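New to this. Please check this protein:
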Amino acid sequence: MVLVRVRVEQTPLPGIGVRHDLVTSSGRTVGVVSHRNGRRDLVLYDVDDPDSCLASIPLTDDEAEALADVLGASLMLGQLAGLRQQAAGLLTEQIALPAGSPFVGRQLGDTRARTRTSASIVAVLRDREVIPSPGPSFRFEANDVVVAVGTRHGLDGVTAILAGDTDG
């Protein structure tokens, strides 16, 4: 079974706000520009030139929340944006836990992820529920989405651990 990863990259936009981009498995890039004044724009980038915006759709808070609900997304990444701005070099990643993971039904502490990678599991998304700051006795279920914070190397390590691709 292949472990699915979704990377959301954050780019500061001086004087404007911050941009979060997601590259889909088909290679398309979609993003959200969060302006300092609270406005949000949903943006779609040109597949041939990822720096070129094909469309920009302004969203009210209610529209952004409705879109997040429709997509089944969590506001967790928005809440973690402030943490990322304060901690240079840290990234946030959502890591899906497929049914075939060796950690389904096991406790978070069994992964020893923080000790082994220096990355932290800060939340778990289960169905439409956010479980913030799960403790070591938290039990994973198939299709949980783990939200981890760390360096690129650390996040890759957590992904490998959850996939069962490492010793230990």
